[in-house]
Amino acid sequence: MHNKSNILKQFNVVLCRTSHGGNIGSSARAMKTMGLTNLYLVKPKHFPSDESYALAAGADDILDKAIIVDSLEDAIKDSHIAIGFTARKRELSQPHKNIRESAQNLIVSAENQRISLVFGNETNGLSNDEIKHCQLLSFIDANNDYSSLNLAQAVQICCHELRVALDLAKDNAINREGLGSFVTYNELNGFFIHLEGMLNDIGFLKKIQGERLMQRLRLLFNRTQLDKDEINIMRGIFTEIQKKIK
To answer: Which of 80, 130, 154, 168 could pair covalently with 113 via S-S, beta carbons 3.0-4.6 A apart?
Structure first.
């Protein structure tokens, strides 16, 4: 049987470029009621603030240990999966699934992986640059004519869906056979940087739209979660190609 608190500790909530301190406090409260405790803040406009602690309503401990970083990459560097929440599907996008469906898979993955739940700015949501760092995208099923949710409401719903999925899965044994040694975002990003460097060295990116191609390649490799051995094999190939052309 799952230890619920241990599984939920595998999840980080990441808030990007939050404009209002009160939304950070309300999000911390939403997290605590669902049993999540790890909060990362990417360039918050107002934090710490009296308003954030007032609206936390007893979730001060989550705010006290919140980690403030300068970029999404820093926030998710130790995570194995980053899932971004966006109401609209983007061009050249990752799989975009309802949070209820996503939650079931995330609970299984959290057995041996750390997962970041990534939320964007209150006004504009996640930027395209932030989305490219997420392996998965998810959405909350809402009224098509009015799908706007307050940030803390969105955090509450997503955390609740994880808790429900965990309750549903607690009596089901998770099959760990065949699971590889998963890589963190930091290791995966190193792979993408190496790939881009190799493609530059052979002159391939100069012939086409380099930025768009790298976005497509990120999507391609994110669809197949690479383990450490596979990353090492691919980077070994890149290194040999670079040696040959030099």
So the answer is: 80
CB atoms within 10 A of CB 223: 11
Would you say 89 and 49 are in contact if contact means Cβ atoms under 8 Å apart? no
Tokens of 168: 């549903």
The alpha carbon of 48 is separated from its chain's Cα centroid by a whole number of angstroms, namely 23
Measured torsion, CA atoms of residues 85, 113, 173, 141, in degrees rounded to the nearest 10: 0
180 HSE (CA, 13 A, CB side): 12
pLDDT tens across 197-209, in order?
899 888 888 766 7
pTM: 0.83
The answer to whether the CB of 137 falls within 8 A of the CB of 84 is yes
User: Which CATH superfamily is 4-169 part of?
Assistant: SPOUT methyltransferase, trefoil knot domain (3.40.1280.10)
Computed over every residue of the chain, the mean pLDDT equals: 88
- The domain 185-245: what is its CATH number? 1.10.8.590
Query: Higher model confidence: residue 160 or residue 171?
Result: 160
Please state, as a whole number, how many other Cβ atoms lie within 10 Å of the Cβ of residue 4.
13
Strand 81-85 relative to strand 38-42, pairing: unpaired
